[in-house]
Specification:
10 helices; single chain; about 35% helix; alpha/beta
C-alpha cells in the first residue's frame, strides 16, 4: 500500500487568521511544545512538499519499500541524494528557526519536535531537538545496523563517481535532486565498509514507521506541555498529526502557524495563516525577545522526508 502523500481540505475547516496574538499568549505562559515541519525551512531555500510550488507536484519521494526492494531504485536515490547533499550544505537557519531557539533560551518551551531532517533548528541554537524522522547527517547499514557520518559516505561516493556533475532541475525537501535516468546513468553505490550491506540515510522514508521509542518520547513531551505550537506542517501524515490529536484530546491548546489549511485545523484553537519567519519574529518582538543572528553554520542535510 502506498503511503499517504496528499490530503484535500474539507469545507468545514475553520478559517485562518492573521493575528498572532494567541501564539504570543501561549508562549508567555510557557511550557509550549513546538512541532515543526518543512514549511519552517522554506525561507532557508529548502522547498516543502505540499505548499505552493511544493515538490509533490513534480516528484514522488522514495519509499522504504522501493529503496529496499530495488538496486536500481537505490542507485537512483543515492545519485540524486549525493548531488542534493551539496546544495543542502549551503542552507542556513532563517528567522523562524532563530525565533524558536530564542523562545527556548528564554525558558518558554517544553521541547522541540521536528519532522525535518535538515538540522537547521540545532544550527540556530535549539537544544534537545527530537528529530522525529531522523537526520540526513547519518547513514545506517540495513544489515549490521552500524551508524556512520554522511560526510564520510559523501567522500566515498565522490571517489567512486569521479566527474559526476549533472545539472539538477530542482532540489526536493528529502534532500535529493531532480535527475533524469540518463543523468543518473551508471552511478556507483558503495556498500557498508564493515559488512558489505546496504546503506540507507538514517531517516524515516515514506512507508516506514517512526521508531516506537521515539514516538513514546514525543508523547511524553505532549503530556508534559501546556500547549502545542505547530510550525509549517500540513500534518498530512499521521507521524505528526497524532501528537496534535493527543494534545486536543487532553484539552491542551493547539496553535498552528501555516499559510495553508492543515489536517490538524479542526483540533486547533487557531491557525495563523502567515509566513513563519515574519510571524515568529513579530511574536518575539511582542514578547520582548531578541531573535538575533544565526550562531553557527548549518550541517549539510535535508528536510522532512515523512511530512510537511
Amino acid at each position: 500500500m502506498r503511503p499517504t502523500l496528499s490530503w484535500t481540505p474539507g469545507d468545514d475547516l475553520p478559517p485562518g487568521t492573521t493575528d498572532p496574538e494567541p501564539v504570543v499568549e501561549a508562549l508567555s505562559t510557557g511550557g509550549v511544545l513546538v512541532l515543526s515541519g518543512a514549511g519552517i525551512s522554506t525561507e532557508s531555500g529548502i522547498p516543502d512538499y505540499r505548499g505552493e510550488g511544493g515538490s509533490l507536484s513534480r516528484h514522488t519521494p522514495m519509499t522504504y519499500q522501493d529503496f529496499t526492494g530495488s538496486a536500481q531504485a537505490r542507485r537512483r536515490y543515492w545519485a540524486r541524494s549525493h548531488l542534493g547533499w551539496r546544495t543542502f550544505g549551503r542552507a542556513r537557519p532563517n528567522a523562524g528557526h532563530r525565533a524558536v531557539a530564542a523562545f527556548g533560551r528564554h525558558g518558554l518551551l517544553a521541547g522541540v519536535i521536528t519532522q525535518n531532517v535538515d538540522g537547521l533548528h540545532q544550527a540556530a541554537g535549539s537544544d534537545g531537538v527530537v528529530e522525529l524522522h531522523g537526520s540526513l547527517a547519518q547513514v545506517v547499514c540495513l544489515s549490521c545496523g552500524t551508524l556512520s557520518p554522511r560526510r564520510e559516505l559523501a567522500r566515498r561516493l565522490e571517489e567512486a563517481n569521479a566527474g559526476f556533475e549533472p545539472v539538477a532541475a530542482g532540489i526536493n525537501p528529502d534532500g535529493d535532486a531532480d535527475l533524469t535516468d540518463e543523468q543518473v546513468g551508471d552511478f556507483r553505490v558503495v556498500p557498508c565498509t564493515l559488512c558489505g550491506g546496504i546503506l540507507k540515510p538514517d531517516v524515516v522514508f515514506f512507508g516506514e514507521a517512526v521508531p516506537p521509542r521515539r514516538v513514546e518520547h514525543c508523547r511524553d513531551l505532549v503530556r508534559e506541555a501546556t500547549s502545542v505550537l505547530v510550525l509549517g506542517s500540513s500534518l498530512t501524515v499521521m507521524s505528526g498529526l497524532r501528537f496534535v490529536r493527543q494534545a486536543a484530546q487532553a484539552g491542551k491548546p493547539v496553535l498552528i502557524v501555516n499559510r495553508d489549511p492543515t489536517r490538524g485545523d479542526r483540533h486547533a484553537l487557531t491557525r495563523v495563516a502567515l509566513p513563519l519567519g515574519p510571524s515568529l519574529t513579530a511574536v518575539a518582538d511582542r514578547l520582548g525577545i531578541p531573535v538575533g543572528s544565526t550562531p553557527s553554520p548549518a550541517p549539510a542535510t535535508g528536510s522532512d522526508p515523512g511530512s510537511g
